[in-house]
Amino acid sequence: MGSTHNFLDERLVKQIGLIAEPTLGFDVALGDGAMLRAEGICRGITLTILGSQFKLDLYPLALRGADLVLGTQWLQSLGPVTFDFAEMWVTFRRGGRRVRLDGIRPSPRDALQPLVGLSGPDAHSYLMQLLPLSTETTTEAGIPTDLAALLQGFADLFEEPHGLPLEREHDHHIEIVPGAEPANVRPYRYPHVQKEEISKMEHLEHLEEVLKILRGNQLKVKRSKCLWAEPKVEYLGHVISAAGVEPDQAKIHCMTEWPLPKNQKELRGFLGLTGYYRRFVEGYGKIAVPLTLLLRKGEFRWTEAVTEAFEKLKKAMTTAPVLALPDFAKPLEDRHMPGSGPSTDPEGVGSRSE
């Protein structure tokens, strides 16, 4: 059960400079069976939540792990209230408008923060976490249940839009905080099972932040074009995964099965397809020179040298490497001449080729 009264941490009362009127004290029973003494009351304190203001009477109390507890005193002032404890949200009407409060899904570090300071200086504490060894449950669509629950909480984002998004000061502009660390930092010094679980929780947190930003800017998402909890994604003829970026194998198969061109139109089609993936082939321009020369007017003369270049280029496409995802914490440098293809960078500095 929840709290019956509204409580404010007594340390915060002193920091803010609130004045507590003397009252008859009363005992407060905590969930762990401990008893605390509440004395005094701070009357008429204004609290603003998502633009809605509330005047509350708060009892100072030595709270542990929280600054403010809103109990049934506050809930009774809201009128009809709708709760969804599975999705962690509550809705009510205030001032003629609907207000929705979404719960926070804490990260492992945030979840442990309230425990700091509970033990004495000479005490020994042990933290244990029980993890299931069975595979995670999924919905009929193959999406993990925790991810499906998160998406359900943002169902309004996938509705058909009925207007334009909000005007912005800058369009297509990404602000980067100077000196910011890269977001993709995997946890270490944990058992493998626990590390994977933490990674999944961090992924859900990042996804939730993205969905909140979309909702805050009144943007909509077409759900039929979204993929969730996939190990790899096909995008514009490429396959993107944790390993990096590589050509779509269906396109590679099309190149390897391409017959000998009989005219410039067929040759131009082959070079157009392979040229789209030239960044994956080192020395693409040099390999393709005998072929590109045939595109000149009246110069289509197929020879053994051209056949050798044709087969060599097809073979090069089948052995194309997986390109590492860029490290945006390091500067991008253009170290190569156009058409030279990719290079290996032992220092991990982002590089590109035309």
Automatic annotation (TrEMBL):
Return the annotated region ranges for Disordered.
331-354
Q: Which Pfam families match?
A: RVP_2 (PF08284)
In terms of Gene3D superfamilies, this protein maps to: 3.30.70.270, Acid Proteases (2.40.70.10)
State the protein's name: Uncharacterized protein LOC120104998
Q: Which ranges does the record mark as transmembrane?
A: none
Give the species this sequence originates from. Phoenix dactylifera (Date palm)
Q: Enumerate the CDD domains for this protein.
A: retropepsin_like
Which gene name does the record give?
Answer: LOC120104998
Q: Which PANTHER family does the protein's record reference?
A: POL PROTEIN (PTHR33064), RIBONUCLEASE H (PTHR33064:SF37)
